[in-house]
Design goal:
alpha/beta; Nucleotidyltransferase, domain 5; 4 helices; 5 strands
């Protein structure tokens, strides 16, 4: 079962996809956000290409365990995704995904400029890989 994962930010959306067996997560792209219509259009292209059975969306939680303010915005965006594409939308705690991705890129000696270009895509990979591993456990 293929899953498309999204790390939704205000300026970009990091995208990752699993292999068909649901074992590995691979970074796909980073969508530069322009408008709801254009963002959904970009997602449509990816959905047509990869044919996922579900969409995984990273949600940030606050220290009390509830959805953060930015999480509320992501939930609203996810409602649009669900309505437009008629695919199940699953949520996953994205806490520390960007930090973990940044650490891995630093370990790989990637410059700050290059890290900035791929960090959201890598965060989506971390979110998706954690989700896939939890399903196998």
């Amino acid at each position: 079962m293929r899953t498309l994962a999204l790390d939704v930010g205000t300026k970009t959306i990091g995208v990752a996809v699993s292999d068909e067996l649901g074992i590995t997560a691979n970074g796909v792209t980073t969508i530069r956000r322009k408008s709801l219509e254009k963002d959904l259009g970009e997602l449509n292209i990816l959905i047509q290409e990869y044919r996922p059975e579900e969409i995984l969306v990273g949600i940030p939680y606050n220290m009390e365990g509830g959805v953060s303010k930015s999480g509320d915005r992501i939930l609203k965006f996810s409602d649009k995704i669900r309505a437009v594409f008629s695919l199940p939308v699953v949520f996953w705690d994205e806490s520390y995904s960007t930090v973990n991705a940044d650490e891995k890129l630093i370990e790989a000696n990637m410059s700050r400029k290059k890290r900035k270009k791929v960090i959201d895509k890598m965060a989506a990979v971390f979110i998706l890989q954690e989700y896939l591993e939890s399903k196998r456990a």
